[in-house]
Amino acid sequence: MRWLADVHVRLRPEIADPEGQTIAGGLHALGFSTVQEVRSGKLLRVAFDASDHAAAEGAVAAMCRRLLANPVMETADWELRAESEPAEGEIA
Amino acid sequence: MSDRSGPRVAVVVFPGTWSERDFLHVSGLVGWRARTVWHTDANLGEVDAVVLPGGFAHGDHLRTGAIARFSPIMGAVQAFAERGGAVMGSCNGFQILCEAGMLPGALMRNDHLEFRCDWQWLRVERAIGPWLADDEVAAGDVIRLPISHGEGRYYADVPTLDELEASGRVALRYADASGAVTPDANPNGSLRGIAGIVNERGNVLGLMPHPERAAESDVGGIDGLRLLRSLDRWLVAQPAAAERRL
After folding, report:
1. What are the φ and ψ backbone dihedral angles of B89, each rounded to 5 degrees?
2. Residues B220/B214, Cβ–Cβ less than 8 Å
3. What is the reported pLDDT for B132?
4. CA B148 vs CA B87, B92, B114, B119, B153: distances in Å
5. Residue B97 gets which letter from DSSP?
6. Any chain A CB within 8 A of the CB of B63?
7. What is the tens place of the pLDDT at every residue in B142-173?
8. Which residues on B lie below 8 Å from A41 (Cβ)?
9. What pLDDT sits at residue B190?
10. SS (H, E, C) chain A
11. For position B246, what pLDDT does the model report?
12. Which of chain B's residues have a Cβ under 8 Å away from the Cβ of A73?
């Protein structure tokens, strides 16, 4: 069974994010004056095979722990779905 | 080890490494027998020291050093360090050592988001292990080395930073020409101005600057050569060097 995981890698909240600050400055310059903060990160979409949901969850957790995020500075969370299920807000 | 023939130094090359030839060149000036080792090799061969040079291993994709740390050679580098062998990672090499957990912390995107290629003053903080510990270069010296990086902002959490300071493991700090560590002298936003650190045992050094690019007066300075000669003195003085060899 094929699974899709959208892995969000974010800087830990206490870490300065100059890229996010620069983007927030850009939004302010365009008149989006209500913007208070932008935090940058990465979105990694991983397609892989696993026998069931529990195995897929375990695999994504292991991928994040071993490679996808560096716990010194980053956190990872993800949305997991079987490939046939449409993602929220997407057209299958 | 024969003093006449000089210490043996392995210079590890990953896809995207760019400073290995400079290291080979300056190794000749120091009197080392240096050779490159490809990252897929599982063994270092007979060596007295290991260098992880600068560059962009595996294109720096995902994070700097994130892919490189899993290269087969890194198991041998780690084992060599655990036996007390001298390992130096410069620039990308420093990033790889942090990703591999051989040094604490991480190197993040420069705070101004620019790639910075410049000459940089550094204050030598500490004489420890094979590094910065003799007549060549010692604690309190202000030296000048090239930097060349987009991701050199040293980060670690406060307890880790405090522990590094308390145990004297901060080797180099970004400074001005007088040796003052100030925000203006900090080229990348590194916490506490940290430019180089060592591991607990002192035998693994990571630094963002490039000593191999400052080894001849024709290129603007020889402080990098001083740093490498400091390592050389330690290597030559090690009676147990042979025991650490693979």
Report:
1. -115, 120
2. yes
3. 80
4. 20, 10, 11, 9, 12
5. H
6. yes
7. 999 999 999 999 999 999 999 999 999 999 99
8. none
9. 98
10. CEEEEEEEEEECCCCCCHHHHHHHHHHHHCCCCCCCCCCCEEEEEEEEECCCHHHHHHHHHHHHHHHHCCCCCEEEEEEEEECCCCCCCCCC
11. 42
12. 106, 108, 155
Instruction: Using an 8 Å CB-CB cutoff, list chain B residues near A67.
Output: 62, 66-67, 70
What ipTM is given for this predicted complex? Answer: 0.85
As given in the structure block, the two tokens for residue A91 are 């057209």
| Overall size of chain A counted in residues | 92
Q: Which of residues 69-88 of B touch A (CB under 8 A)?
A: 70
**B191 and chain A: CB distance < 8 Å anywhere?**
no
Active site residue B91: yes
Task: Please name the residues between 2 and 61 in chain B that touch chain A, using a CB distance below 8 Å.
Answer: none
Kindly report the backbone phi and psi dihedral angles of residue B13, in degrees, each rounded to the nearest multiple of 5, phi listed first.
-120, 125
Place of tokens 């090690």: B238
Q: Does B98 touch chain A (CB under 8 A)?
A: yes
Q: What is the pTM of this model?
A: 0.92
